[in-house]
Amino acid sequence: MIRVLIADDHHVVRRGLLFFLKTQKDINVVGEATNGREAVELTASLRPDIVLMDLVMPEMDGIQATKKIKEQYPNTEVLMLTSFSDRDHVIPAIEAGAAGYQLKDIEPDDLVESIRKLMRGENTLHPIATSQLMKVREPQIDPPHKLYPLTPREQDVLSELTKGKSNKEIASSLFVTEKTVKTHISNIFSKLHVQDRTQAALYAVKHGLTDPSGL
């Protein structure tokens, strides 16, 4: 079962999410938070696998709550579910540690698939959020090997990862084993000082380490 915590200050939104998610045999909604502070506190006591996090909430917003959750409970993934699609919200949310970013107009079935993707360690970004990442790409002054200590194979894996591919798909594309892909991804996270695949994708696009057209 995928343990999910819903964090949103609007009762109607929480009720709607709870109603639909309860119909999924592999998802268990373990709690509801009405603000960011409650989200952090309930994460501590309930230890959900996924937190569905609103951005704008009283007492503590979703970005602050996400940062605290990822600092204290790195194994809990945060999926931003919001109405805001501008870069001033998308980029800080991902930098805070959100592994996914979706808008509230998402189809219910797509939301469920996004939750399952996070559990599989895959990226889940709304196309609009992806377009915001593409806009932050910075000019590349020096060749990647002078700025970043990634091996050529790690750069290949990073490029495939940025396209949202799973470990299995990356392994198939590069003709290596999934175990090898996992090792490369672990090395990439360590070298780039990022926590997850979404942050690695953002880093790659910002610093010109991969082609943003593949996102």
UniProtKB/TrEMBL annotation:
GO MF annotation list: DNA binding
Pfam name, any one: Response_reg
Domain Response regulatory: 3-119
Top-level division of the source organism's lineage: Bacteria
Modification sites for 4-aspartylphosphate: D54
Keyword tags: DNA-binding, Phosphoprotein, Transcription, Transcription regulation
Keyword check for Transmembrane helix: no
Keyword hit for Transmembrane: no
GO terms classed as biological process: phosphorelay signal transduction system; regulation of DNA-templated transcription
UniProt domain HTH luxR-type: residue ranges: 143-208
Protein's recorded name: Response regulator transcription factor
